[in-house]
Structures are given as structure tokens and as C-alpha cells.
Amino acid sequence: MSTCSFKDISCDDLTFTHPERLGNCYMCNLYYDDNLVYVQTPILEINNIEINNDNNDESYINISCDNKQFIDFLLEMDENCVKSTFNNSYEWFKKDIPYEAIDNMYNEIDVEMNEEETIYYTKLKLPVINNKIQCNTYNRDQDIIDIDDINGKNVIMILHFKGLKILKNNFYLDCYINQIKLVDTNKYNILDKYSILEDSDEESIDENMFSDELFEIQEKEKLEKLKSEKLEKINKLKEELENLNN
Asked: Which of 102, 116, 233, 243 sits 20 to 30 Å CA-CA off 218?
């Protein structure tokens, strides 16, 4: 398995196989440079996890992100599906199908935005079989954790873009979550509890530890000042005596 960043995928290099019957549908497998398409997402925030025990195929993780480039990539993948189906319609279905008809039949990914158009919301398919989640969820140490531990947190995912799933009345790009990893986006790791080590032998600070030294300096400065003043008076008296003699 080779994983690519969504930034490195060029839709022009994606190829679909000829439709093959798979139960009640047809499947066109998707390849990128002859490899299955596993794509790593940017950091996503988990909004909630929906596991449908009545219909496992309707299990999703609702996510939000502020990465417009990633959302554009998902929409471009949808556009490529419509374009490829139109270009291969005669080879696949033995008839030419109008582009508009193909576009109307295609179910693209649902994307919503906040009012400022800075946060994007969508849902990604969670692989569930017999009410059991098939993909692994990892913590920062690469240990497997329960998927409920990521609710409301930030993650990176590996998505498998399996290919075109063609039903009687519609078709779509079959994509599901292959792996999930919890990530830490906090800039600072602040301890929750008081953790400063206390020294039981630590001596308290003596507020008067410099008093004696300061006193000596002050006394010395005072004596120097008195000496200077006395010398100045002597010189002044000498000057007055000299003036009288003259």
C-alpha cells in the first residue's frame, strides 16, 4: 500500500477500470500510477461519529476543517468522476450518454461552510461490517485506541478512494476511511496539576542580608563627605587670611 498526500494527487493521472458487476451494482476500480488510491488528509476535527447498526453502509464521521485546498481536492475528484464517465460512456455502456445526464445522476460529496466561509463541514464514510468498525484508530504513540476516544478531537486520516460505484439510478465515488490517527495541535503542553518540586531544606531569604554592608558603605561615603567639607573650609580660611595680609 502506497499513501499519497492529497496535495500530490493529480486527477489527470487517475484511471478507472472497465465496470465489473459486484452484487447489485457495478464497480470501476480507481488507480493512480497503477496503484490503489490511498490519500492522507490534512488535520481534521471530529464533530461526531454516526454508526448506523440498521444499515452499516450509512455510517459516517462528520468532520470540519479550515483547509480549503483539501475541500477543493474532494470536489475535483467528483468532477473527474463525471468527466471520466462521460468520456468512457460508449466503451462502458455501449452508448453515448449526454454530459448533463451523467452530471444529474452523479452524487457528489456534501460540503457546507460557516458564514465566514472559513470552516468547511462534510462527512466521510466509516467502514462497518456486521456492526463492527473495520478501520483502526491510533493514538500519538501508534497504539490502537477506541474510536470514541477521538470524538471532538483533531485527527489525520487515510482515505481509500476505491472507485466508481454504479447503481441503477445513480453513481458516486466510493471512498471510505482506512486509518485514523489522533494528533496534538496544542502549541504548549501545560500541566494540569501543581507540579513544582518543593525543597524541604530550602532556607528562607533574609531580607537584611545586605544591611551591614550597605551600612558600611553609607558610613564611608558620609566620612568622605565630611572630610571634603572640612578641607574646603580650611582652604577658604587660608584664602581669607591671605587677602587680609595683602
From this structure: 233
